[in-house]
Amino acid sequence: MTPAWAKVLIPIVLIAIGAVLVWAFSLAALEGGDRLALIALERVPESGVSNPITSVLLNFRAYDTLLEVAVLLTALLGIWSLGPAAPAFQPASPILGGMIAWVVPLLILSTGYMLWAGGHAPGGAFQAGALLGAAGVTLALGGDASAGLPGETRLRFLSVLGVLVFTAVGVILMALGYGFLTYPEGYAKWLIIFIETAATLSIGVTLAAAYLGGEPRDERTSRSAT
Amino acid sequence: MITQFLYGGSGILLFLLGTWSFIVHPPLIRKLIAINVMGAGVFHTLVALAYRGLTAPADPVPHALVLTGIVVAVSATALALAFGQRLDRDHGSSADDD
């Protein structure tokens, strides 16, 4: 247990840290330069998409996003290496099952919308992937042992698809004489949508698989087990 | 301006509460929740910093940073939960007790 002196000292130190943070926040908020914001907003029209956040994520700082997709993949590999998944939940009652049958197609439809909307409005690969993952989680909660995910081989392929396509686009652009992930003029929009589509599939599959929390079971073994 | 400080201040408050909980509570699951609360506070503050008034567009860079951060936080949490589950399975529930 925490000793008595720590019970007094910890809040005091935290309040002091808080005071410094509020001071720093007010400095940044009151006279914060918009140096980066100006540069970013100025060049949005060149980025192929009109949503500034998507142009930062997929164009100006595409490296970050590539590595981010890789972080998701790494986490999933870590989860898979810890052993098999917990047994499935009990099958849903007819009412819940009926609701799931409605909600999951709607979620998949919204995934497509969110992916497309990312170009000009709030949205994008990560939001769309989260919706796709939510569809998987909903299925898992309804008692589907595989959360609607495909068999092991295809699951493994889908989970690396985002990193694969992202890196491939970068390397091919490099081979063509542009920089790594420097999109040529006129193609930026379609390249971004191509990458985002692959990333969405990967993110959705990764989130649903992470929710199951164990390595994928081979189709044959899971069939014989059930 | 007041709105911005309200958001930024509550973000800092969330961060501090999370830090306090992380230090004080020994159970691992509570520490994990505390880290997530800390992260939520940081995201809150960053988004508040991106605010440029109602007429000007917000700074897109902190928004992109927050999106990245959320994804990393979610994957780290998922991995930590899987670790916890494995600890539980190998050592019974003793690893989780106070």
TrEMBL record, chain A:
The chain crosses the membrane at residues 12-30, 65-83, 95-118, 124-143, 155-181, 187-213. It comes from the Bacteria. Coiled coil: none annotated. Residues 99-208 form the Na+/H+ antiporter MnhB subunit-related protein domain. InterPro entries: CPA3_antiporter_subunitB, MnhB. Keywords: Cell membrane, Membrane, Transmembrane, Transmembrane helix. It is a multi-pass membrane protein. Signal peptide: none annotated. GO terms for cellular component: plasma membrane. It is found in: Cell membrane. Belongs to the CPA3 antiporters (TC 2.A.63) subunit B family. This is Sodium:proton antiporter. It comes from Thiocapsa imhoffii.
TrEMBL record, chain B:
It comes from Thiocapsa imhoffii. GO terms for cellular component: plasma membrane. Its main location: membrane. This is Na+/H+ antiporter subunit C. Coiled coil: none annotated. Keywords: Cell membrane, Membrane, Transmembrane, Transmembrane helix. Pfam families: Oxidored_q2. Belongs to the CPA3 antiporters (TC 2.A.63) subunit C family. InterPro entries: CPA3_antiporter_subunitC, NUOK/Mnh_C1-like. The lineage of its organism: Bacteria, Pseudomonadati, Pseudomonadota, Gammaproteobacteria, Chromatiales. It is found in: Cell membrane. It is a multi-pass membrane protein. The chain crosses the membrane at residues 6-25, 32-51, 63-83.
